[in-house]
């Protein structure tokens, strides 16, 4: 018996009292709920998982849109009582082996959170995070840097144009150019006009300058107190170790405090509302969205919450869902609108549904269609099998333990925190068994979901119809409004004020050039780097045109099946069609079933299936370009045979139909266009690399802006009959390829019969793939954004080349020691960095939500001067920076895995030549990299004559880049 076994309700641990101890069988864990004398709440999840995790949540309820909660989240991480360096958060990234590390601001809470598999690292980061949250310095310089400040275009010249600057200010300018962000903020304001949700917690750019430095400090003093804190820990260490560290780090310095952060109920509307919002866009023909939304009951009510999650899944969960299908088939729009579905991140939940990719004139028709369809569903009733299928999805979600996407430990945290912060039970989201049992009992007593539709939707007057309209003039109007705001706020400036602006700007720049004594920060060493990669056991068998790997893993009652097809030689037309094939093949019909019947079948017996196109290079040659088509799915153990059957039918007999193909293609275009602004650095980086790298050139053709342009042309042509014939021909080519199947399951399911799939493939030799490079001309793409995304790329060496590890370390060193300071701290960009893809051999430097263009490309060019500067010459010079760069680089070579991914990665890695031995040899070379190696690879590969340039921006960049001698070829997206 351990000490932890003796912890029961009422147990006192220091100044904590244990309030509840509860087993959580669905996630193989035990939950401990505690309360501190100061009022702090603490949830600990004890689980046999070495990915130790910490989070602290503060309810933050802004009363305006100055972005105080968001700016505070930034500035709290910029120096604290025990760690008075400029930016301990970013300084710790290369000193840690974290598996996640961040901070986030939501509509009504702020969190600081991280996870790591290294015990020493966990407590290092805990000290940093606790000190940052509870004892930040909140320096005026930090407020000006990340919040807002006046600054001249030339910071040292008061005669140059006066502008508004700030990291958060520029971040939110970029964010509020995104239609999804504008719609989300407008929806909150429309549904909850009297509550904190009516404010933009991230900060409205026009209102951010209203935040004062004193207001920031006051907000921290009020909200960041243990009495207002919700702590979360997760892992396999003794509970008392977590509690003792928090007691010493925080609690002993505080006395009890009270703060009313409660959010009342929104007064219900007496009649529905119509609201319009606009965002900057020239797509007036199909750029609008129409959304119908309702305020519902309390999100922390476990029964209400579960019922609405189930009903939302039933109504919208797949292409055949009874609300989704008529909306899409109406032809009014191309896809469900942003924000569609059940939303429980507010104290009172919401349900919304609508369409995007439409003209603003169609909005009333969307509203009518939504209400008419709901009335029809309520009248005719929901088929029992649809509800059973939705509940089946919840069963899978309860059982699956996966680190895919986010660490599982943080998925658990976010399932608990919603009800917890609103006064509900945090364990409701972790153990749904009781609520599911009550729901099933209620179903036996008669229909319940139809009544919910009638009472909570059709007869609910607290309804908003929101129309999001593209405005071609808005971007220029916002620029003019910003100039007028700067002029208004500086109208009474004296000469002394203007001198002060210059002095503060110069002082801020000088402070950012001052090297901090980061030796006061805790760190790991290279001895902490894991030199071994995972080697899960698996068996291999060859069956016809396919090879099958079987990996035994503790998958919690699920089975995973992956099917990778190495493709034979394809024509350029077939290559270009592959992404459309991958997007449509699982969303169309198959084996005699139309798309609706197949969608219902997939939901009933699987946890979802997918298809994708992937490319990579061999470990020894960048010209060894490999292309594959992948299918995959998961299911509960009892449905393993059904999973095989579904995947077989989709792979063997897809059925493409013109009307459905048109719907899907429009969805694809709308989705990709909507993501351009939020992922602008990735698009720009790909555009640059496509001029140099065969793999990047292929990616640009498949999933980049060139691919999007081709899909838009196909939509315009409306040539569905010809496209279907081409898809059929491509499908036949896919079946000629070599199949590679990976089964991941527990011992009892490992022998599942997959012969029906392996027999499909011809086993034809995989072909060498060639992709013509894009013209070596700086490429600029303009779109509706007030900020820029800049990129420069270099083609270097393959994985096994001796210089590859040095390039990997170089990317990390330039990011942490140079680019973050130059682009973010000095330039006001939200982000920026360097990265090396060791498989493609491409080295990139990029910036994100950047107010600068010419200056940023100059920063990229001066990276060589930085590395060859005095800080890296002389005995012992640069040793700390080098070790941190290697430590940070090693994280990518030892990724966080879980039972669903670890075997798949090893099996396909071995088949591709990236064996465990090859990977471990790479780690050893990385650990032996020297500063001289970084300087050598910089001078060898990252020279101006090797560089390729690209960017996304809201304007022609050539005036800005003339000083750099860059002349961009400009195209509008």
Keywords:
973 residues; alpha+beta; eight-stranded mixed sheet; six-stranded mixed sheet; 30 strands
What does it look like?
The protein starts with 11 loop residues before the first strand and ends with a strand. β21 (609-618) and β22 form a beta hairpin. The strands form six sheets. Strands 1-2-3-4-10-5-7-6 form an eight-stranded mixed beta sheet, sandwiched between helices. Strands 11, 12, 13, 14, 15 and 16 form a six-stranded mixed beta sheet that branches. Strands 17-18-24-19-22-21 form a six-stranded mixed beta sheet, sandwiched between helices. α9 (302-316) crosses α12, α11 (363-380) runs antiparallel to α15 and α27 (804-826) crosses α30. The model has no long low-confidence stretch (mean pLDDT 95). It is 41% helix and 21% strand. By secondary structure, the protein is of the alpha+beta class. The longest helix is centred in the last third of the chain and has 23 residues, at 804-826.
List the helices and strands and how they pair.
Layout: E1 12-13, E2 16-24, E3 29-36, E4 41-47, E5 52-59, H1 68-76, H2 88-92, E6 98-105, E7 109-116, H3 119-134, H4 140-146, E8 149-152, E9 162-165, H5 167-175, H6 179-191, H7 213-223, E10 230-235, H8 239-249, E11 273-280, E12 288-298, H9 302-316, H10 324-329, E13 335-336, E14 341-343, E15 348-358, H11 363-380, H12 384-399, H13 408-421, H14 433-444, H15 449-458, E16 463-471, H16 474-489, H17 495-512, E17 538-543, E18 546-552, E19 558-566, H18 572-585, E20 589-590, H19 595-605, E21 609-618, E22 621-636, H20 640-652, E23 654-655, H21 658-674, H22 680-689, H23 694-703, H24 705-717, H25 720-735, E24 738-745, H26 755-758, E25 779-782, E26 789-795, H27 804-826, E27 831-837, E28 842-848, H28 854-861, H29 863-867, H30 879-891, H31 902-911, H32 916-927, H33 931-941, E29 948-953, H34 958-961, E30 969-972
Parallel strand pairs: 4-10, 11-16, 18-24, 25-29, 25-30
Antiparallel strand pairs: 1-2, 2-3, 3-4, 5-7, 5-10, 6-7, 8-9, 12-15, 12-16, 13-15, 14-15, 17-18, 19-22, 19-24, 20-23, 21-22, 26-28, 26-29, 27-28
Helix pairs in contact: 1-7, 9-12, 9-14, 11-15, 12-19, 18-25, 21-24, 22-23, 23-24, 27-30, 27-32, 27-33
């Amino acid at each position: 018996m351990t000490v932890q076994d003796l912890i029961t309700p009422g147990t006192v641990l220091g100044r904590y009292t244990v309030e509840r101890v509860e087993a959580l069988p669905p996630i193989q864990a035990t939950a401990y709920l505690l309360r501190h004398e100061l009022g702090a709440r603490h949830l600990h999840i004890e689980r046999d998982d070495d990915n130790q995790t910490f989070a602290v949540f503060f309810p933050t309820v802004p009363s305006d849109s100055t972005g105080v909660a968001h700016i505070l989240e930034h500035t709290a991480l910029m120096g604290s009582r025990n760690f008075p360096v400029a930016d301990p958060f970013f300084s710790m990234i290369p000193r840690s082996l974290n598996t996640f590390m961040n901070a986030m601001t939501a509509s009504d809470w702020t969190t600081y959170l991280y996870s790591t598999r290294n015990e020493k690292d966990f407590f290092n980061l805990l000290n940093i995070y606790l000190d940052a949250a509870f004892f930040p310095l909140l320096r005026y310089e930090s407020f000006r840097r990340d919040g807002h400040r006046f600054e001249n275009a030339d910071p040292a010249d008061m005669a140059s144009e006066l502008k508004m600057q700030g990291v958060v200010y520029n971040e939110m300018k970029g964010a509020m150019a995104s239609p999804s962000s504008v719609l989300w903020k407008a929806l909150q304001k429309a549904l909850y006009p009297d509550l904190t949700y009516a404010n933009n917690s991230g900060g409205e750019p026009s209102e951010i300058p209203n935040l004062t430095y004193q207001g920031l400090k006051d907000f921290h003093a009020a909200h960041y107190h243990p009495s207002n804190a919700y702590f979360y820990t997760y892992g396999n260490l003794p509970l008392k170790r977590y509690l003792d560290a928090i007691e010493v780090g925080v609690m002993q310095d505080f006395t009890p405090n009270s703060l009313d952060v409660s959010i009342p109920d929104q007064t219900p509307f007496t009649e529905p509302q119509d609201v319009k919002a606009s965002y900057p866009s020239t797509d007036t023909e199909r750029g609008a969205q129409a959304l119908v939304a309702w305020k519902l009951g309390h999100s922390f009510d476990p029964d209400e919450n579960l019922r609405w999650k189930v009903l939302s899944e039933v109504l919208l969960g797949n292409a055949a869902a009874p609300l989704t299908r008529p909306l899409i088939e109406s032809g009014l729009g191309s896809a469900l609108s942003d924000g569609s579905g059940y939303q429980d991140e507010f104290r009172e939940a919401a349900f919304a549904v609508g369409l995007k990719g439409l003209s603003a004139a169609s909005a009333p028709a969307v509203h009518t269609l939504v209400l008419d369809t709901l009335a029809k569903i309520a009248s005719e009733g929901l088929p029992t099998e649809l509800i059973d299928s939705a509940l089946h999805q919840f069963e899978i979600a309860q059982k699956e333990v996966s680190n895919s996407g986010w660490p599982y430990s943080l998925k658990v945290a976010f399932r608990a925190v919603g009800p917890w912060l609103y006064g509900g039970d945090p364990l409701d989201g972790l153990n749904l068994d009781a609520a599911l049992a009550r729901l099933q009992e209620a179903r036996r007593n008669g229909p319940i979901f139809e009544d919910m539709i009638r009472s909570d939707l059709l007869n609910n007057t607290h309804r908003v119809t929101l129309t999001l309209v593209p405005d071609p003039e808005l971007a220029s109007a916002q620029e003019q409004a910003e100039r007028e705001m700067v002029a208004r706020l500086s109208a009474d400036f004296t000469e002394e004020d203007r001198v002060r602006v210059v002095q503060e700007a110069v002082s801020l720049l000088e402070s950012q050039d001052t090297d901090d004594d980061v030796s006061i920060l805790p760190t790991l060493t290279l001895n902490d780097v894991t030199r071994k990669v995972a080697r899960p056991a698996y068996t291999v068998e060859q069956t016809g045109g396919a090879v099958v790997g079987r990996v035994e893993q503790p998958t919690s009652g699920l089975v995973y099946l992956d099917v990778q097809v190495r493709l034979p030689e394809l024509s350029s037309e077939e290559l270009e069609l592959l992404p459309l094939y991958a997007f449509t093949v699982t969303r169309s019909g198959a084996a005699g079933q139309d798309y609706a019947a197949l969608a219902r079948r997939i939901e009933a017996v699987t946890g979802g299936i997918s298809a994708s196109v992937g490319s990579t290079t061999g470990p020894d040659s960048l010209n060894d370009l490999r292309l594959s088509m992948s299918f995959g799915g998961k299911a509960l153990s009892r449905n393993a045979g059904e999973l095989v059957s579904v995947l077989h039918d989709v792979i063997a007999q897809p059925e493409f139909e013109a009307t459905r193909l048109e719907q899907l293609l429009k969805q694809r275009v709308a989705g990709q266009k909507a993501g351009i602004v939020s992922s602008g650095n990735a698009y720009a980086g790909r555009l640059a690399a496509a001029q140099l790298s065969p793999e990047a050139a292929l990616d640009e053709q498949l999933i980049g802006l060139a691919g999007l342009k081709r899909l838009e042309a196909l939509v315009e042509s409306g040539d569905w009959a010809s496209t279907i014939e081409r898809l059929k021909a491509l499908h036949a080519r896919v079946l000629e390829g070599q199949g590679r199947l990976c089964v991941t399951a527990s011992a009892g399911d490992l022998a599942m019969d997959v012969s029906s799939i392996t027999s499909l493939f011809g086993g034809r030799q995989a072909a060498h793939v060639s992709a013509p490079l894009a013209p070596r001309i700086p490429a600029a793409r303009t779109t509706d954004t007030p900020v820029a995304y800049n990129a420069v790329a270099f083609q270097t060496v393959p994985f096994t080349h001796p210089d590859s590890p040095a390039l990997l370390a170089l990317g990390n060193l330039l990011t942490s020691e140079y680019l973050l300071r130059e682009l973010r701290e000095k330039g006001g960009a939200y982000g920026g960095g360097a990265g090396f893809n060791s498989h493609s051999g491409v080295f990139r430097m990029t910036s994100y939500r950047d107010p600068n263009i010419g200056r940023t490309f100059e920063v990229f060019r001066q990276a060589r001067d930085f590395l060859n500067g005095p800080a890296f010459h002389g005995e012992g010079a640069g040793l700390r920076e080098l070790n941190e760069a290697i430590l940070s680089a090693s994280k990518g070579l030892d990724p966080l895995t879980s039972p669903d991914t670890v075997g798949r990665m090893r099996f396909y890695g071995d088949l591709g030549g990236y064996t465990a031995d090859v990977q471990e040899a790479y780690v050893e070379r990385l650990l032996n990299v020297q500063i001289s190696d970084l300087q050598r690879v910089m001078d060898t590969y990252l020279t101006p004559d090797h560089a390729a340039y690209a960017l996304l921006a809201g304007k022609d960049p050539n005036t800005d880049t003339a000083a750099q001698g860059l002349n961009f070829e400009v195209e509008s997206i």
